[in-house]
Amino acid sequence: MVDSNEMTINLVVLGRTQTGKSAAGNSLLGSSDFESHRSPSSVTTCCSLGRSCRISGIIRRSGCELALRVQVLDTPSYPHSGLSKEQVTDTVRSALAHHFGEEGLHLALLVLRADLPLCPDESDHTIQFIQELLGPTWKDFTAVLLTHADKAEKAGFSEEAYLHSASSTLLSLLSSVQHKYIFLDNQKTIIKEERAIVLRKLLNFIRQNNYHVLLLKHSKE
């Protein structure tokens, strides 16, 4: 939060290589701050913070419109093709504390591909990684961002049909985070209206959590 006429939300994107983390971050910011392209190895090797311009028409409070700013922390993937788990964890934990240590984190966005099944081992490793980063209340501060939604749609899956056919592993994960999920097509430039819909959903998740923030420290647990 900044002042009575403006609200800032702090987000971090987490996930595996080539899930579209950096592209999703760019979509949320309405920019191209983060490098994003196909590669045989992990593209992102360090954390970087992107900030949006003032966004209007998204949120109102007490009958007055507030300007919204979005801050997104892009992170190296886990597993990573060139970094160990400890290196990724230390890098992300340090960046979270540096950028959001005083303001707090509103949401961690776990980025998964909608066009690929989520297997139990992958889910277990991902949850363990997020738990180590965010602590025991991680479920309250985590939402799932399902990218490549256009490919699922082209395969004939509406959102309802997709969830009906989803693996028990994915459904269990969505249940654990109180069904906070968003479908996103980040293979093309997101238009203003689509971005507004996504941001309103994120704000609704934050509102459901009573605008609480997760305070982060440099020291390890």
UniProtKB/TrEMBL annotation:
Source species taxonomy: Eukaryota, Metazoa, Chordata, Craniata, Vertebrata
Protein name in the entry: GTPase IMAP family member GIMD1
Record-stated family: Belongs to the TRAFAC class TrmE-Era-EngA-EngB-Septin-like GTPase superfamily. AIG1/Toc34/Toc159-like paraseptin GTPase family. IAN subfamily.
GO molecular function: GTP binding
The species this protein was found in: Rynchops niger (Black skimmer)
Keywords: GTP-binding, Nucleotide-binding
Gene3D superfamilies registered for this protein in UniProt: P-loop containing nucleotide triphosphate hydrolases
InterPro entries: G_AIG1, GIMA/IAN/Toc, P-loop_NTPase
Superkingdom in the source lineage: Eukaryota
PROSITE patterns: G_AIG1
Domain AIG1-type G as annotated: residue spans: 6-221
